[in-house]
Design a protein that fits this description.
- The chain is mainly α.
- Helices cover 71% and strands 0% of the residues.
- The protein has five helices and no strands.
- It starts with 16 loop residues before the first helix and ends with a helix.
């Protein structure tokens, strides 16, 4: 069903800045969840939807890693930059920075690396366990969300200390 030519539905988009990155990241995560629900419900075109599902998770990672680099930058003495490679290579670089900065994250970083290995393998496989990919990527989103909150709390703490 096509909308009538007189209909309009304007949506505000933010392409830049933290709010825009957050909205795009949340959108990629939501898209992956919706596509997963379609596949689990027996959607007739599930074999085609899986490609978009995997790409949505890659997009989520791209946005999340860029956000983590931005958040971590004030806590490091040297510039943190993501290399030009794909998100899997970028995570490998960032994981070292992260565990060096906060050794207590090493277990979660290893779990995240395993989840990303599963996603990377799924992107080149003939068969994909979408439930395992989705479950592990949800674990990654929890880790990234907690990490973001931890970094923000540390930045606020440092800012409060510098004002005293």
């Amino acid at each position: 069903m096509a909308p009538a030519t007189s209909e309009a539905h304007l949506v505000v988009l933010r392409w830049d800045g933290p709010q825009g990155r957050y909205e795009q990241q949340a959108g990629a995560r939501q898209e992956a969840a919706l596509l997963y629900a379609r596949m689990r419900a027996g959607y007739p075109a599930a074999e085609w939807v899986v490609y978009r599902f995997l790409e949505a998770w890659r997009e989520y990672l791209r946005l999340s890693l860029a956000g983590l680099v931005e958040d971590l930058q004030p806590l490091t003495e040297e510039p943190v930059e993501l290399g030009p490679g794909d998100v899997f290579e970028q995570w490998a670089d960032l994981a070292w920075v992260l565990t060096d900065l906060s050794p207590d994250t090493s277990r979660d970083a290893v779990t995240t690396s395993r989840a990303l290995t599963r996603l990377q393998t799924a992107c080149i496989s003939d068969r994909v366990d979408v439930t395992a990919v989705h479950r592990e990527m949800l674990t990654v989103t929890n880790f990234f969300g907690g990490l973001e909150a931890q970094v923000q709390a540390l930045l606020e703490f440092r800012q409060d200390r510098s004002q005293d």
